[in-house]
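Below: protein 1.
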Amino acid sequence: MDKREYDLILTIVNRGFADQVVDAARGAGAHGGTVFYARGTGIHEIEKFFAISIQPEKEVVMNIVRHEETQVIMHAIVDAAGLNTEGRGLAISLPIADVVGIAHFMKLTDNKKARD
């Protein structure tokens, strides 16, 4: 069985908190990420304001990281974004079977392995 090299960390937070996630991930070893906007649809997401339904906007941060760095990066994200507090967001990691288009990241990884 092949050892997986990369994981995808998906972090969903309330709008305005993506920078905290990105900064924490970078500080813990991630090389970058992608942020996009979303809208929550859970039971806690719909709020009433003067009888008008408001669906809070979300930010989703995607980071491709080396598998062995996943836990450290996730813990940094949890601490920085306060994900242990109810309603602040969530982070999950998913295994990546194959990936293309991250040649710069692979070069950094290969250089690091050569130095170790």
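Below: protein 2.
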Amino acid sequence: MKNLFAKYDKWTKEFMESWKDLDWERTLKTLDKEVKYYENPIDPPCSSFTEVINLWNVVATNQKDIEYKYEIVSFNEKTCIINWQMKRTMTKDNIKQEIDGIFQVSVNDKGLCTFFKQWRFTK
């Protein structure tokens, strides 16, 4: 179980750090090209990896000053639940946001995310 926790922790840290660094190409490297990616839990998943790229390639220009923390809440061989919080500034209107969210992820033996679903609430 310790190795399993470490696998999920390593993935989450890289995902969040690359986001904080506004390095969306690095963020994409945490995802398997066949990832089932839900940007919003009530919408269908992205239809292709190109659609995932289009979600992330605006990050470097639409947000800044990112601070985050996370906690792995639950995990097993197939799924990990991560509670995360973030503070950021949206560059278009300089509005500061606070977000509390949940990621549900599955990570393969290569350390890449094969399933990603998020719920998030913004102040």
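Helices lie at 2-20, 24-28, 49-56, 59-62.
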